[in-house]
Write a structure and sequence with these properties.
223 residues; alpha/beta; Rossmann fold; six-stranded mixed beta sheet; 6 helices; 35% helix
């Protein structure tokens, strides 16, 4: 089985200095263009099932990339982005002012932190891995499926299939918006085919590659 994990295209939240999590923000205009170009990756692939989170930025990404297939999407709450609780929709400066110690911990050691009234990374791990196993169980061995999800969801899956501790999440770089990562499931085992493929995007519309924090993270991360 091949599972294509897709990070949603650039959302308005990705280009604002705020914590979004499960805040239901749409794609930006640049993100819509990324999603259309993502269609080049999928144009010659036969997908047996298409999964999205229930947040509009993943549904919009899949809809633009896979034109005409929206009615077949299977939308799941369990692959939504992490629930940021009281941080959702707040400017980073405001979060630092109100919850400075916990937010610094979140940035430096996210496995030891939890947004007030939100999820911790272990909560995310449990629901995401359970969903991955469910997807595997309900598809045939020769199936090809696409899963349109979020940055933290994809990081968690990578940690799971590579047997990495959740303390390593800060060492896994944020994948490019609308990038594709291939997971292979065979003989009861997961392996990584390729990761963070964004060859379908011209350099000038990439999100992570054109941000200072993205370039820094790519150069310092191990995975």
């Amino acid at each position: 089985m091949k599972i294509y994990l897709v990070r949603h295209a650039e959302s308005t939240g990705n280009i604002s200095p705020s914590f979004n999590g499960q805040k239901d923000v749409p794609l930006s205009e640049n993100g819509r263009q990324q999603a259309i170009l993502l269609g080049e990756f999928f144009k010659n692939l036969k997908l047996d099932r298409i999964y999205t989170s229930t947040l509009k930025r993943t549904i919009e990404t899949a809809d633009l990339a896979l034109s005409g297939k929206r009615e077949s999407f299977i939308s799941l709450d369990s692959i939504r982005e992490i629930n940021g609780g009281d941080w959702e929709g707040r400017n980073y400066d405001d979060i630092y002012e109100l919850w400075g110690d916990e937010f610094r911990k979140w940035r430096e050691t996210p496995h030891k932190a939890q947004p007030p009234n939100g999820e911790n990374i272990y909560d995310v791990f449990d629901r995401v891995v359970d969903t991955l196993e469910k997807i595997v169980s309900e598809n045939e061995n020769e199936s090809t499926v696409a899963v349109f999800a979020h940055g933290a969801v994809i990081k968690t899956i990578i940690a799971f299939i590579r047997f990495l501790p959740l303390s390593s999440l800060t060492e896994i770089a944020w994948y490019e918006n609308s990038s594709v990562t291939e997971i292979i499931y065979e003989d009861g085992k997961y392996s990584l085919g390729f990761y963070d493929n964004h060859d379908h995007l011209p350099d000038n519309i990439k999100t992570v590659a054109n941000s200072d924090w993205g370039r820094t993270m790519k150069s310092t991360c191990r995975y």
